[in-house]
């Protein structure tokens, strides 16, 4: 069995290591907070690993790999999964 620390070993190189954790896990999310967190992710050398981990692990909270929880949930469904309501 693989240890959790090995699973997220890439996190040691994350650009968010020097950021306030509440920027990524805010008590009350806001558009401004999401934009600022995503800007950090945008210059992170391990963004691909972080995003893949969050999607694989089903992380439900926080910004991971430049994605909000809502964006991660949406990404699990094909683009045309939702059909318009019948009229
Ligand atoms: S992609 Fe964002 S959340 Fe993930 S390690 Fe990098 S800065 Fe942190």
Automatic annotation (TrEMBL):
Positions contributing to [4Fe-4S] cluster binding: 16, 41, 44, 50
Pfam families (alphabetical): Whib
Record's GO cellular component terms: cytoplasm
Residue ranges occupied by any 4Fe-4S Wbl-type domain in the UniProt entry: 15-74
GO molecular function annotation: 4 iron, 4 sulfur cluster binding; dinitrosyl-iron complex binding; DNA binding; metal ion binding; protein-disulfide reductase [NAD(P)H] activity
Predominant localisation class: cytoplasm
Keyword presence, Cytoplasm: yes
Gene Ontology BP terms: cell redox homeostasis; negative regulation of DNA-templated transcription
Region (Disordered): 65-87
Compartments, as annotated in UniProt: Cytoplasm
InterPro entries cross-referenced by the UniProt entry: 4FE4S_WBL (IPR034768), Whib (IPR003482)
Cofactor(s) needed for function: [4Fe-4S] cluster
Cofactor note: Binds 1 [4Fe-4S] cluster per subunit. Following nitrosylation of the [4Fe-4S] cluster binds 1 [4Fe-8(NO)] cluster per subunit.
Presence of the UniProt keyword Lyase in the record: no
UniProt keywords, alphabetically: 4Fe-4S, Cytoplasm, Disulfide bond, DNA-binding, Iron, Iron-sulfur, Metal-binding, Transcription, Transcription regulation
PROSITE patterns according to UniProt: 4FE4S_WBL
PTM comment, free text: Upon Fe-S cluster removal intramolecular disulfide bonds are formed.
Family named by the database record: Belongs to the WhiB family.
PANTHER family, per the entry: TRANSCRIPTIONAL REGULATOR WHID-RELATED
Free-text function comment from the UniProt entry: Acts as a transcriptional regulator. Probably redox-responsive. The apo- but not holo-form probably binds DNA.
Protein name: Transcriptional regulator WhiB
UniProt source species: Spongiactinospora rosea
């Amino acid at each position: 069995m693989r240890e959790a620390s090995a699973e997220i070993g890439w996190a040691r190189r994350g650009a968010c290591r020097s950021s306030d954790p509440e920027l990524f896990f805010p008590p009350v999310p806001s558009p401004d907070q999401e934009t600022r967190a995503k800007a950090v992710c945008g210059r992170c050398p391990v963004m691909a690993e972080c995003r893949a981990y969050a999607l694989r692990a089903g992380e439900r909270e926080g910004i991971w790999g430049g994605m909000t929880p809502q964006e991660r949930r949406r990404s699990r469904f094909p683009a045309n999964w939702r059909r318009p309501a019948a009229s």
